[in-house]
């Protein structure tokens, strides 16, 4: 079984675990930090509308060779596109710090 197949078929019980699996699989990062910041936003109307269950706001820092040659907007679009299913199922906001291996 390929690494891609095993990663996508493995059950991930939390949004954080799903985000990490997607980003590791698609970006092969040398560094990846994911912090759930939902508790700080629990009082926001958007978080309340989503049921207040948390896992709606994350801070993510990634270093990946996939970002080399991409400008800041393209890097953000790439990550947001990879996580589009999470956004459609309750992810509300990402704070992103994205660095290439060769280009900051």
From TrEMBL:
Taxonomic lineage of the native organism: Bacteria, Pseudomonadati, Pseudomonadota, Alphaproteobacteria, Acetobacterales
Alphabetized PANTHER family for the sequence: PTHR46230, SUFE-LIKE PROTEIN 1, CHLOROPLASTIC_MITOCHONDRIAL
Recorded family membership: Belongs to the BolA/IbaG family.
InterPro entries: BolA, BolA-like_sf
GO biological process, one term: iron-sulfur cluster assembly
Top-level taxonomic group: Bacteria
Signal peptide (residue range): none
Pfam families linked to this entry: BolA (PF01722)
Protein's recorded name: BolA family transcriptional regulator
Organism for this UniProt entry: Gluconobacter potus
């Amino acid at each position: 079984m390929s690494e891609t197949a095993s990663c996508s078929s493995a059950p991930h019980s939390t949004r954080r675990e799903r985000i990490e699996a997607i980003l590791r699989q698609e970006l092969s990062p040398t560094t990846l930090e994911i912090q759930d910041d939902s508790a700080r936003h629990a009082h926001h109307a958007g978080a309340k509308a989503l049921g207040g269950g948390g896992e709606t706001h994350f801070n993510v820092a990634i270093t990946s060779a996939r970002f080399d040659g991409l400008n800041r907007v393209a890097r953000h679009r790439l990550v947001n596109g990879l996580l589009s299913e999470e956004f459609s199922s309750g992810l509300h906001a990402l704070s992103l710090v994205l660095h290439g291996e060769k280009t900051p």
